[in-house]
Each structure stands twice: as C-alpha cells, then as structure tokens.
Amino acid sequence: MFITLNEPLITALKGYGTGVMAPGMNGIGDLVYIAAHNQILAHGRAYRLYQSKFAARQGGRVGITLNLHWAEPMVPQDPSHQEAAERFLQFNFGWFGHPIFKNGNYPEVMRSRIDANSEKQGLEKSRLPQFTKEESEMIAGSADFIGLNFYTTDIVYPVEDDITIPSYNSDDGLETYQDETWYTSGSSWLKVTPWAMRKILNWIHKEYDGRYDIFITENGVSDNQGNLDDISRIYYYKHNLNQMLKAVKMDGIRVAGYFAWSLLDNFEWDNGYTEKFGLHYVDMSDPERLGEVIAQQVRKHGCNISEF
C-alpha cells in the first residue's frame, strides 16, 4: 500500500494560506487554491504512473490521506445550519475528495461560491482553478482507497462574511467553535468527541457511494505531560474504536484498517515536542522509551477491538 500525500489540506491552508508552516507563504485568498490544485494533480499523476508501470507486477494499492473534523450543525433542526455543516465538509474534505473519488472536478458548492465571490471582487477569473478535460479524466478515480485522519469535531453555523478581501475563510460562509463541556486534550484544537467517529465514516461512505475501502490512517489524542497512567488516552481509544466498530458491524461501512497516532511521542508540526500523542512516552533528553498504559491495553487486546 502506498499513500501519495498526507493532509494536503494542511499544506495548502497553513503552508500557503496563513504561512505558519513551511514554506511560509501568505495567500489565504489565492495561493491556497493553487497549492491544493497542484497537489491534486501531483497525486493523480503519481497514481497513473504506478498503475502503468508497477501495479501489474507489484499488486500494490495507492491512495491519499485526507484529514477532517466532523461538522455538527449548531442548530441541528435549522436547514441553513445543516447546509453550513455540509459546506464545511465539502470545503475541507470534498475539496480533494470530490476530484479524486468522484468526477475529476471540485464540489459544486466550492465552484459556485468562489466563482461568484471572485466576480464580485472584480477579478477576471475565479480564484479556484479549473482542471482541463484531460486533467479531470486523469484525476477522477485515481485512488484505490480513502485514507482518513480523524481526531475531533467542530460545531458549525452560517454567517454572511465580508468578501471585500479575498479569503478561503469567507468563501465558505461559516464559522466554527467547539463545545466548552467536551473533554480537552493537550492540543487546543482537539476536543474528545468519539461519537463523531461513526458519523464521519457514514458521511464518507455515503458521499462516495460506498465504492472505496476506508483506512483510518490517524486517530489519537494528546497530552502535555506524557502521563504513564494514561486514563484519558485509554478512554479516547476505547470509545473511538467502539464507534468505529458500530459503523462496521451495524452500518456496513467498509473500514479496512485502523492506525493509532502515534506509536511514539514525536515532533508535532509547529508545536514541536510540547504535545505528546505517543502510545510510548519519550523523554527527549533520554533514549529510553517507556510504554504507557494504553500501549499495554493495545498489546493485550490486539486487533480484537470488540473486546477493547
């Protein structure tokens, strides 16, 4: 199995939008879309190259890993909030998933909103690039499986943003927040919402017509201390795995694999060593690795997640 790209959304938004990650470009209104566009093309070409030169001999499978927070409408009964939540999913996951797993083009909600905003801003062409006919044909279906990195949930509600200054953040017409009562973690963005695991798997399965195996390529929770008596991490894994199992057994979702993030504490993007996701605690000043309680639980139960 091969994964061409991991979290191209983060590369686009934080590398070319806000510039807080490498390569530090600040183009939240235009460069984000160009960076995403080029990553999709790169993925498609890598997939087609493997299919033409190596697949018959090696029998490998090639996919891409996309990250997504579940989107919960602030007012579940309000159609405008439901639409905002769906828009969030399309602007984050569908941005890459729709061209690759569907028809070689961006989601219609992105196409229509960004085209309209670009026109209102007096631009000669849309800030969202177009794929040529040949590119669309090359991209569409360029994956053998879906990789999903899932951690948490955002509550979503619609807003009428000022579009005077071009921005991805106003193109989607929504705002997000997280419930203060949800369990926290060592990361400001990560609240513990295991109930969303089943929802997000069902959405992906339905959105892409159940045609792809889904591999959960990252799922985990952080702390700041590296606790060895790791009750909070055990809770996170136990309940996320339980919700995943319900999606498989009760909903018929094609989950083909699950990978915890992560085996060891590691260097976490722009937060360095301050956020610890490991099943094994790592003292960065000492080569010894200490297994946490959660690692012992995973070892004890192995792949039999029905007992976890």
Give me some keywords for this one.
5-stranded parallel β-sheet; 10 strands; single chain; 3-stranded mixed β-sheet
Major sheet: 5 strands, parallel
SSE pattern, N- to C-terminal: EHHHEEHHHEEHEHEHEEEH
User: Radius of gyration over alpha carbons?
Assistant: 20 Å
What is the molecular shape? globular
Q: Which band does the percent of strand residues land in?
A: 5-15%
Portion of residues within helices: 40-55%
* Average pLDDT rating: 93
Secondary structural class: alpha/beta
SSE blueprint and pairings:
Blueprint: E1 2-6, H1 8-15, H2 31-53, H3 55-58, E2 62-67, E3 70-73, H4 79-103, H5 108-120, H6 133-139, E4 145-149, E5 153-158, H7 168-171, E6 174-177, H8 195-207, E7 213-218, H9 231-249, E8 255-258, E9 280-282, E10 289-291, H10 293-301
Parallel strand pairs: 1-2, 2-4, 3-5, 4-7, 7-8
Antiparallel strand pairs: 5-6, 9-10
Overall description:
The protein has 308 residues and is α/β, with parallel strands linked by helices. Helices cover 41% and strands 15% of the residues. It has helices at residues 8-15, 31-53, 55-58, 79-103, 108-120, 133-139, 168-171, 195-207, 231-249, 293-301; strands at residues 2-6, 62-67, 70-73, 145-149, 153-158, 174-177, 213-218, 255-258, 280-282, 289-291. It has a five-stranded parallel beta sheet. Strands 3-5-6 form a three-stranded mixed beta sheet. The radius of gyration is 20 Å and the shape is globular. The protein starts with a strand and ends in a 7-residue tail after the last helix. The model has no long low-confidence stretch (mean pLDDT 93).
